[in-house]
Specification:
The complex is a heterodimer of chains A (297) and B (134). In chain A, 66% of the residues lie in helices and 9% in strands. Chain A is of the alpha/beta class. The longest helix of chain A has 44 residues. Chain B is of the alpha/beta class and 134 residues long. Chain B has one domain: STAS domain (Transcription Regulator spoIIAA, 2-Layer Sandwich), CATH 3.30.750. The radius of gyration of chain B is 16 Å and the shape is globular. Chain B has a 5-stranded mixed sheet, sandwiched between helices. In chain B, helix 1 packs parallel to helix 2. Classes of the chains: A alpha/beta (297), B alpha/beta (134).
Chain lengths: 297, 134
């Protein structure tokens, strides 16, 4: 049973396609920031969507964007939405792509219609359809964003847990970012693995890049230190900033007999002395290096 | 019945656990080790668990017990070669083995025990000298 308002919609799109397209594109270009999208691309996208909508309407599909007949429109919107999500459009700007069709479409419907009742029907049908398509756009947009975020999280997890070797037998783990359970697990595993591989006696956990320390973070740190001790390596925690030192004391966190140092340099010095090593100043070192170079040639 | 061999290297007893520990085996080891410490007058015990990949709370407690018993008998215990996964499991179980010395491998554990034994001998030598002086 074809809805008469659908037929009227198709007729309007057919007859005044160019006018509709021009007005729709102009509306969007007015709201978008300059240079966000090329006018030609936008017109091509608008024209493609209009044609797909027309085809679906002609096929007599129900005004339900979830239906099979609308899959073409859904796919196109998904593609546009994804690319906009990656280009940094806001969700509102992305949804506006579909919603901005309302003003020109309603205007044309009104000028084409003579009867108030049928006009109300037409507008209702168009609104129903466009709202659903706009919601779909937002859905896809959010999904694309979500994927982006989780991929970045994964990248960050891998990037932010390097275990570096400072000296034979001394490892350092510069931690950056908030320490939550899953990250601590990764940090702990990679540290312990590297301790086994390198046979290091001392590991320095540097928390200069950790923004805040709460009881949970402290507990995670203590677990890492204990696990390293169980394997026979000593842990030094360094890079404790003044505010964090205050927080630790105010929270009543018991760091037990864990060695803590204010800076990585202090921790490194201690680690070297544990290994029976030390750093000393060379006499005339820079001069000797420069003087030695020409004679060597 | 299975037994874990206890090897004697001078003042140090060497235990290498190469099989998965079940409870009975752990208890037997505890008995044997206690006897061996008293019989040989050992000053150090080195337990190598580098081949152990699975650990439970009983095993963790057993290690702590052995260390405690050895300490009462005036011997130092060093647990060496713990795998990362085992260490993480023990920490998650809340067993931090307080009072048990650890080392990365047998070499480092042995070096530590020898230092402990040597310092004990120096101490007893000096006390002998002091006695002799009087």
């Amino acid at each position: 049973m074809p809805d008469p308002s659908v037929n009227r919609l198709v007729a309007v799109i057919d007859e005044r396609f160019d006018e509709l397209l021009r007005s729709w594109t102009a509306d969007q270009l007015a709201t978008l920031r300059r240079g966000q999208i090329a006018e030609n691309d936008l017109r091509a996208q608008c024209s493609e969507l209009l044609q797909i909508i027309r085809r679906a309407l002609v096929s007599g599909a129900p005004l339900d964007a979830e239906a099979q007949a609308w899959s073409g429109a859904r796919d196109l919107l998904a593609r546009i939405s994804m690319s906009r999500a990656q280009q940094g459009f806001s969700p509102a700007e992305t949804a506006t792509f579909v919603l901005s069709l309302k003003r020109p479409l309603f205007g044309i419907l009104r000028s084409a219609s003579r009867d108030t009742d049928s006009l109300a029907d037409d507008i209702w049908s168009a609104t129903l359809l466009l709202d659903q398509l706009a919601l779909h756009t937002t859905d896809v947009y959010l999904r694309a964003r979500q994927e982006l975020i989780s991929r970045q999280q994964q990248d960050m997890l891998e990037l932010s847990t390097p275990v570096v070797k400072l000296w034979e037998g001394v490892l350092a783990l510069p931690m950056i970012g908030t320490l939550d359970s899953s990250r601590t697990q990764v940090v702990m595993e990679s540290l312990l693995q590297r301790i086994v591989e390198t046979g290091s006696d001392v590991a320095i956990l540097d928390i200069t890049g950790v923004p805040t320390v709460d009881t949970l973070t402290a507990q995670h740190l203590l677990k890492t230190v204990t696990a390293a001790r169980l394997m026979g390596a000593e842990c030094i925690i360094s890079g404790i900033r003044p505010q964090i030192a205050q927080t630790i004391v105010h929270l009543g966190v018991d760091l037990g007999d864990v060695i803590t140092k204010a800076t990585l340099a202090d921790a490194f010095k201690l680690a070297l002395s544990r290994l029976g090593l030390g750093i000393m100043r060379q006499r005339h070192a820079p001069v000797a290096a420069h003087a030695a170079a020409p004679t060597a040639d | 019945m299975d037994r874990i061999p206890i090897l004697r290297m001078g003042p140090v007893l060497l235990v290498s656990i190469q099989v998965d520990m079940h409870d009975e085996l752990a208890l037997t080891l505890q008995d044997d080790l206690t006897n061996a410490i008293t019989t040989h007058g050992a000053r150090g015990v080195l337990i190598d668990i580098s081949a152990v990949s699975v650990v439970d709370s009983f095993m963790g407690r057993m290690l702590a017990n052995i260390a405690g018993i050895a300490r009462v008998l005036d011997a130092t215990t060093v647990v060496v070669g713990m795998q990362p996964a085992v260490a993480i499991t023990l920490v998650e179980l809340g067993l931090s083995l307080e009072g048990v010395r650890t080392a990365l491998n047998v070499e480092k554990g042995m070096a530590h025990l020898q230092a402990v034994v040597a310092s004990a001998e120096v101490f007893s030598d000096s006390s002998d000298d002091a006695d002799g002086a009087h």
